[in-house]
Amino acid sequence: MTSSSIWPQMAMVRQKLHAARIEDVSGATYNALETIRLRPPAPDAKRVAVAVGSRGINSIADIVKSCVTYLKRLGFEPFIVPAMGSHGGNTTHGELSVLAGLGITEASMGVPIKSSSTVVTVAMLPANIPVVMDEQTAQADHIVVINRVKPHTKFHDVTESGVTKMLTIGLGKGEGARIYHRAAVDQSFAVLRTAAALILQRYSVLFGLAIVEDGYANTAIISPALPENWFEQEHHLLDQARGMMPRVPFDQLDILIIDEIGKDISGIGMDSNVTGRHRDLVGDFFEAPHVKRIFVRNLSTNTAGNGNGIGLADVTTQRLVDALDLKRTYANAITAISPEKAAIPVHFATDRECMQTCFDTIGPIEPEAARVVHIKNTSTLDTMAVSRTLESEAVSDPNITLVTPWEPMPFDDQENLEGV
Q1: What is the mean predicted confidence (pLDDT) over 308-337?
Q2: What is the β-pairing status of strands 400-402 and 10-15?
Q3: pLDDT > 90: what percent of the chain?
Q4: CB 43 within 8 A of CB 131
């Protein structure tokens, strides 16, 4: 055992990220919708299913409210459909609770919310793969999907997380999530574009409303995707999202400390595009920041016990394990064909024990020389704590500012670290 007195000193740094915040989100939503030049509906074709997901997208309630208000002004009769695959436990109560947590309720939106786990088969793909859709959406006259476009945690392609995923996995509910993840083991997630193309051909999809966030998780772009340019537009927005995405500005790390993971932060709790680590049947990858050990301290409050992704950590705390809702965590991981992401790492009562384990398992490196980064979560990367070994890299980077003195790692009376 090494003494904490020779553990690395840490300092807080601030990272300058890509900033492109839209100040008037409601106005920008309305302006984006105006570019579509949508015509009023026919008298017998007014019902619009507006698909809304489970992610903690900044200003999502304002965007959804502006969208349904716009549709109502044109004479449509919109209703909201939870489109979140298996999230929310694939139950009415769970889905409505997730939406309410995002500020989306019937009272706040002024339209009905129709939640159901029932799906219908609307098409068949090669290899006898069914394309399924929420039953109430399939019965609507028109469909609108609203989602953030960003790099996916599980795969890299021309479309990743966005309106295509919402149209297929989101509206496919738990059954669709299971079908597409199973199919992707052999066919890759390009299967989602094939399924979405059939839906776009057979249903009146008015538009997808695609959102891109800047490095500070603020709404930066609100753009419609139309059936005729659906995939091209999403690909274009994905490139922009990738360019704005915040990252850890150091490579070859010995230890990455993460204060919290959760479904409100990433589909797998901690974004693999930030941690550089992913393990899955559809493909493993290990890329920058090339971390030897990941230590996760807590679950986020809004994840409601869903610890999917904890299996990508090496060390965690007993308090995180105690906070796990194993039913939700396992259901999420199994639906995504990734039981490994629900595997519980070695865990200890205190952060000090967890840190000691990390130092003991990084190889022949003295703790005081370890390259350590401590972040709040993988979506909040404007400030972080770094070890003194990274000082020269930090001060030479024009986008990084040192904001505190170098001090010993801060533990409280319970031997737990202070959050960043």
Answers
A1: 95
A2: antiparallel
A3: 81
A4: no
pLDDT exceeds cutoff 60 at 151: yes
Over 60: is that where the pLDDT of 2 sits?
Answer: no
d(CA 51, CA 237): 19
Q: How many CB atoms lie within 10 A of CB 262?
A: 23
Amino acid sitting at position 388: R
Amino acid identity of 217? A
Q: Residue type for 248, please?
A: V
Report the distance separating Cα 295 and Cα 351, nearest Å: 9
Contact 121, 209 (CB under 8 A): no
Q: Cα separation of 148 and 356, whole Å?
A: 39
Q: What percent of the chain has pLDDT over 70?
A: 99
User: Which residue intervals of the chain bear CATH 3.40.50.11440?
Assistant: 25-244
- Return the pLDDT at 1: 46
Whole-model pTM: value is 0.89
**β-bridge mates for residue 383, sequence order:** 14
- Cis preceding linkage at 78, omega within 30: no
CA 408, 296, 263: angle at the middle one, nearest 5? 140
Return the H-helix or E-strand segment holding 61.
helix 60-73
Do 8 and 370 contact (CB within 8 A), yes or no? yes
Superfamily (CATH H level) for 25-244: LarA, N-terminal domain (3.40.50.11440)
3-state secondary structure of 363: coil
369-380 CB burial, b ≥16 within 10 A, e <16 = ebbbbbbbbbbb
CA distance 98 to 419: 26
* Residue 350 C-alpha from the chain's centroid: 28
Residue-by-residue DSSP string for 68-123 = HHHHHHTT-EEEEEE--TTGGGGSHHHHHHHHHHTT--HHHHSS-B-----EEEEE
Give the model's confidence band at 126: pLDDT under 50 very low, under 70 low, under 90 confident, else very high.
confident
Residue 173 carries which DSSP code?
Answer: H
How many beta carbons lie within 10 A of that of residue 301, not counting itself? 10
Give me the pLDDT at residue 337, please: 87
Alpha helices by DSSP H, listed for 159-276, are: 163-165, 173-187, 191-202, 230-244, 272-275
- Cα torsion 318, 95, 268, 331: sign: positive
Mean pLDDT of the chain: 94
